[in-house]
Structure formats: structure tokens, C-alpha cells
Amino acid sequence: MTNVFDRVAEFALNCTAEDIPDTARETAAYLLLDTMGVLIAAGSMQAGGIARDTAALLFASSEPDFSARMLFDGRRASLAGAAYATASQTDNLDAHDGFNPVKGHIGVAIVPALAALAEQCPDLSGREALAAMIIGYEIAGRAGLTLHATVSDYHTSGAWNALGVAALAARLRRHAPDQLRQALGIAEFHGPRSQMMREIANPTMLHDGSGWGALVGLSSAILAERGFTGAPAITIEAKEAVPFWDDLGRVWQVEQQYIKPYPICRWAHASIDGVRMLMQVHKLTHQQIAAIRINSFEEAACLYSDHPLTTSQAQYSLPFAVAVQAVHGRIGVEHISGKGLSDPTVAEITKLIKVKESPRHSARFPAGRWADVEIETLDGSVYHSGDINARGGQENPLSKQEITDKFTEFAAPAVGRNRAAQILAATLKLTQPGSSFSNLSALIYDPPAR
Fold first, then answer.
1. Closest to 314 (Cα-Cα) out of 259, 263, 261
2. Which of 25, 303, 352, 429 sees the fewest Cβ atoms within 10 Å?
């Protein structure tokens, strides 16, 4: 074992809000806002309803000090149960932030855990809430990098974002270093090392395992708090892990997250962007399209190819997503659910799309999500996009206005424009000195007005 854990403990438990750059805090506020919008929009979806009902049935607590309200639901569950419900709900609307190098997602588990834990921290300041959230991102991201580099399987995000949740909980519940060590060891041992490509091949409500990551991470913290022990976390304490923790506290991975413009697996985004660009530049309509040919990386080419029957399948279907963009000029929640799944025009365009793997693009994954697109029109014209990397990351970030517009588009239909605007303002004010998380929490636990 190495001395990495000592550095992790010092960082997780003692790093102050003032030790964190202003840019990282501001980024965290926008990531929090974006995740809130996604979880709000996902509230009426079947997966979220099942997860919340199950948390109320199976993951309740008899102790008020260990319970929390479920976000935008109001019912109480255990701390771990409330985090599980919201993380599962968010995970099933594939529009939340992610981190290219780990091929997965952090905020989907961290934000629900923060909201659950905040129920027992009435005096939590806005800046400390953001600091705790950032701690979770930094530890989850490095645990994910270590896991991907040291094991052969491609595991879902829950396998490693559980460690970020455990660290977040240890900080907010003022654990001693040894309690944190035990919590991280328990979380790593029980984190859901489920096979991501199995879910890609057969899309279901399992998605990226982040609901269970949140459940495991918070449960591990409470177990450690009460004296339960766990073997040291290999992704932190093994010799092979050392290089992935060298920049802790110097490089802020929270600033390296991407924010999605579409509620679709990001592996499809470069292809969507290519079609979007060509149709805008050349003023094309879907009625003019004879064929769309796409080259992308291997994993993107493995996305679901049949016409989707469910929202889960739609979010993992590259041809369907491209067709929606071509027909509607955007991809909204309404296009991947309900009547949107049986849109006959989208179905016809989907048949015109062919996807192939390109070694050139595969070589640049996971650092980038690349594709090139060719559109042939009925008059025989052919338009080429050239190589395109998906929008939303550091290399081509969404603007602050685009992020807030996305939040409003996702949140307002469910909670109303007034409440959505209040949530937006309260979230972005968390960066200010003297702000209180309670100003936001007053807006995020009650269910949408009926």
C-alpha cells in the first residue's frame, strides 16, 4: 500500500471552499444546475417513478436523522434510498454531464447524494455545498481512471462514482480519516461492477449503474460511521493507482466535465452535430435526404441499430437520434418518449442512415467522440462534414446561456417557468459568499404542482 490515502483524506476532509479555484466553483454550480434540469425532466418517466416507489417501499428509515425527502417527490426514504431514487431517475434520461477519460458520469450520483445529505445539514452554506460536490467529483473521477486502467472489463459508472459519494458523505458528516478509509473500501468492494457494453447491446433501465453507485456510496459511509470495516480501496491505495492521484488538488477534473446538448448517449453526439451542421449550412430539409452515411468510433457503431420501442433504446440508438435531429432540428425529451417513439417521419429517415466504424475515429476514443457525416440528397448532391468532435466538452463547450436554456427547456414543462427560474437563480447564487444551500433546498423537494 502507498501513502496516497493520506493525501486523499487531507483533501476530502480538510480542503476548504477557499482552497478551490473560483472557476471550479462556478463550473460546479452549472453542473449542479444541469443535473437538476435532467432529473426534473426525468421525473415523469417510468424508470424514475419505479425507483422512487421502490425507495419508499424498500429503502426507508425508522430514524429521522438518517432520512431525507426524495427530490421533486417529497416522500421520505433513508439517506441512501433518497440518493438511489434520484440517481436512478437521472440516469434514465441520458442528458447528464460526463467525463471523457472514464467513459462515464459523476454528477448523476454526486448531486442526488448531496441533496439527500443536505437534509441533515440545515446550516450548509452554498460555497461548502459546492466544495463537497467538487470533492466528490475529484475522487470519483480518479477512482474511475484507475479502475479503467487496471481491469479488463468496461464497468458502469456506479463502480467508481460510489467512491465519490462516500467521500462526499464523509466530508459532510465530519468523519475521521479512518472512517473515510473504511467507507472508501466498502464502497469500492460493493460498487456495481456491471458490464457497460452489455447494456449498450440491450438497452434497459439499468443504464449506467449510477443509482446503485449512489446507494452503495452513501450506505458505505453510514456503515463506516457505525464501525463497519472494509478492505483498503485498491483504486486509491494500490501501487498501480499512484499516478492517477498525483495531481489531486492541482488539476480540477470538475472543470473537465462535458455538458450534453442532447438527451442521447454522447457516443452519438458527433454524428448528430455533423447532420445538424450540414443541414444548417446547406439549408437542407429532411424531405431532400436520400441517404446519410456516418463513420464513427467502434463503440458508437455498436449502439442500438433497430428502431427503438422504449426510451432506453432511443437514447442508445445513433440512427434514431440522427433521424430526430434531421426531422425536427432538435432532440427534446418529447422525441425520445411517448408518441415521439412512433413518429413515422423519423422512422422513414432512420432507414436511410448507415453507420460504419472508422479506425481513425476509434483511435481517438475515449479522449474524443469523433465522427464524419455524408448527406446525399435526392438530386444527387453530396455534402461532407469533415471530422467532428462532439460539442459540450472543454474543446467546444456550451455557453452559459446554452446551459441555462437547456435547464429551462428541461425543467419548466414539469415544474413551471416560475419555479424553474427560482431554482436557476438559487443554484447559481451558491457561489456567492454568505449564500445558503437552504435557499435552493426550499425549491427542490416538493413534487411538481398538479
1. 263
2. 429
